[in-house]
């Protein structure tokens, strides 16, 4: 990963520098003419596809392959011992320059099918750069053919033969696919397509249904969806700017609530109103729906430091907390929390998406406020967040995947939620400090300070967005595991008190079963078993074995986990089966909730009464009871002072376990009854409730 970053950042030191572009021809030809013999590379055993990519890159740059190799050899020494690695570095060198030329001279490159095919061929060539491959490299990607992908597509380029992404990925020719590392090396060279921080997560999202191999149909569908979203975002700016009165450099990222069957409801207190919700790179706008027109938008700021809180929440009619389909916004600028509800018949995917993108913008601004960036650095941070949201939308709309896949493409939200995510932000901050850095005077070329350009910001500008009037990074390797763990947590969440109680009972079944067996022994229903258990327990207490009980449990659990870890790797984790309770409607659920609250209230009342009676005994409200308790405490103190702990444990165990013994059952029952009668006669200490003064509270 570190080597990838060095090569990528080195290739982008001059990225987005128009003075380096030698050809401004808008019509770039990505096709290989097949007459590249005169421009052949001197690298031996070059695969045909790699040779084709090099020839096309040279043609785009209007130079020969020999010239590209001469430039490359001037900075890199040939390594005959690592031919594949050296060839791949040369491929990256040529591909980065060709892509830089294309994206700096065209703003509509994502809509060009030849460009999409060319970038995919770059990845295939990186996977198979030479004819002789190491054992772990796949030789299946030496050739590429676009005929199989182009067959069966309609006039818009969408496949007619595949109803879902999964079936499309399975049925396409799986011998022509791209691996994870090839995608991670090539895709970030086009900043609109991928970001270095989240490129592996993007690959996982695109290959969730194709066994971690990227098919061209899926890659092409993603780029077309991304192009469509960018075009839609540019076209949305005009009609809504007059209504929202956006500030300079404010970009509309998404709009919801415009379709009658998918409304957005704003809840404030017990009132709710439908309307249109708009997210920009600075705020959330809500326009209430009036009589045929939208009212003036209410602004919920995300850029200023107002202690904003955005989280998922439950909403319902008249303020009832029934449906988990809302996003709550709270800050010092609003008197009470505001809830945006996204109704849908099944699931809460709309709510989850809007929660993620709103948090992405909020975390981006908090990152800016924490580091006190200058204007260029601030705009670069916002540009990264904007491009991440565009990619998130593209994956979500093109592939219809779960939120656990596409939400990992949001850099700042991901960094806030991951373990050690602060290290990502620290690295990003150090990279942003190098934007437009002044070179060290008098330093050798090899030790010159690295200067970076605001890649994301300039990419947005070239795509037609304006963030100002004039207008590559380390990441953690286990982000997918953390997000996958979070996805499993979301899947096992169930609704309803009775359902959650049923799940808890099944999970605690070993503990409940053990307690039941122990209670059975203590009830002396089987005298022989109870007597054997009593004798063994007394011997264990007298011989001091009780101190080994807890360590033995820990060792047994550790051995069980290690056996599962090393000897049951291939055994899948079976789903935990729980018998669901009978279904209940909303009224029955409310009654169940009311009963649970009543039971909890009763337990709290009983505890308060016990505490008040103890207070009465302590303060001698009933003198005779206080004297008895005082004498009992003195006796217990003497026993604790002079008796050994071992004998005390044995005494307590014998008293508790033999209480239901046939020879003690009658006397024990009589003694417990006298104790209850004595406790009932103890009065509770008085309590006086004082209402808070309204004037003082105001």
Automatic annotation (TrEMBL):
Species annotation: Salix koriyanagi
InterPro entries linked to this entry: DUF639
Protein's name in the database: HEAT-INDUCIBLE TRANSCRIPTION REPRESSOR (DUF639)-RELATED
Keyword Chloroplast: no
Keywords: Membrane, Transmembrane, Transmembrane helix
Keyword Flavoprotein: no
Region Disordered, residue ranges: 12-39, 135-154
Feature: compositional bias, Polar residues: 12-30
Any matching Pfam family: DUF639
Transmembrane segments: 549-567, 629-654
